[in-house]
Structure prediction request, 200 residues.
Amino acid sequence: MQQNLFHHANLLPFDGEAYLYENVFDAQECKFYLAQLMEEIDWKQEPIKIFGKAVMQPRLTAWCSNNNRSYSYSGITMQAQPFSKSLMLIKQKVDSLSEVPFSNALLNWYRDGNDSMGWHRDNEKELGENPIIASVSFGASRKFEFRNYTNKKLKQTLILPSGSVLIMKGKTQQYWEHQLPKSTQILLPRINITFRIMDV
Prediction:
């Protein structure tokens, strides 16, 4: 059944829109897709530049595209690989939910709670001024945080469970940054897919 965006509460108080949909994928689908993505995708651990110094990212990554666009951030350029069969099936379901035909996907494999993602905004110019991004989670539930870009004390915290889809749209990437913090309590892996639109 189609879940309309406007039937869910906006998680952000102002200057942006974020909607969380739980159980978009059932437990059996989550288990299947987690295993398939681990096998089908060509994963890499690459260095990024932080304050001019190269450090290894605390996660494995991959960039998939149906228009062969590369993706650059933090001093690295990721070359595109095609959507795998499983990733295409996931995309079709997310396209239907969000009513948007996504063309690209950044994948992150967090092997356990020691892997993380620091504060950032998905505001690369190739994504457009107000991009819509759909974030899909399989595996361990992880804490996810928003922080206002101007007032760093203003935060929103939520849990992204397996099978959920978080849709960020409007001015979110202009006014809010987000992170996935480390957690010593998390022992299981999580794969996250952020679907995006990048024109050729």
Q: What stands out?
A: The mean pLDDT is 93. The helical segments are 27-40, 85-98, 172-175.
